[in-house]
What we know:
By secondary structure, the protein is an alpha+beta fold. The chain has helices spanning 10-20, 31-38, 42-55, 73-80, 86-100, 142-149, 153-162, 176-189, 231-251, and strands at 29-30, 58-59, 65-68, 103-110, 113-120, 135-137, 192-195, 202-210, 216-225. The chain is globular, with a radius of gyration of 20 Å.
Amino acid sequence: MTKGDSEYVQTLARGLSVIRAFGPNHQQQTLTDVARRANLTRAAARRFLLTLKRLGYVKSDDGKYFSLQPQVLNLGYAYLSSIPWWDVAQRYMEEVSAAVEESCSAAVLDGTDIVYVARVATRRIMTMTIAIGSHMPAYVTSMGRVLLAHQEDEWLDHYFAATTFAPITEKTVVEKSALRKILAEVKHQGYCVIDQELEDGVRSIAVPLFDRAGKCQAAINVGTHVARVPKAKLISDVLPVLQAASRKITAA
Length: 252
């Protein structure tokens, strides 16, 4: 559905853009900041902010700076609570994290990105903050490649045609034919390892989560630092723990 569709509600779309204008590096913003990031006029941004404030989603103590209220979490929780495997996955992810003494995350595909829907963190290994709701480009993450690998060919053709693959580190694979080959290997072997393509010093391994019909619905991963866990150990020691968790989540 696009802006030209008769059922497209532009007001709702603009209101959501105001909420999305806030983020890790933009917790507090002025009216001008919000208008610029949401691509709205100051007058329109002001109306949306005041409406969201009245509804309890936004606060403004001094009338100059605006920030989100905890009630915004209800919007995301409505999605999380509708995922049948979410509460089950969290329990087994805690077991994975305890067994390997590393952080464990779960994500689903959201357009060309992955979005984190569950996380058990033991230590911080990345400079960027990862939390539930965080987005990252699918092509450069282990969970993203697992999820991409299980898409239909037609969907992947559209994805490769519409996505710009930009290098994030010196090791990031951005060549389309190379990425397609990697995705084929990921689907065949049943897991994906990312070695310092997303951030220097960080590697991760991910496996798919399947529903009862055998369809990949999500992915779980373990992230490590290169100085702590060699790539070979990631596959020999961590992968079996992740695969066992995946089977348990599917069975449950």
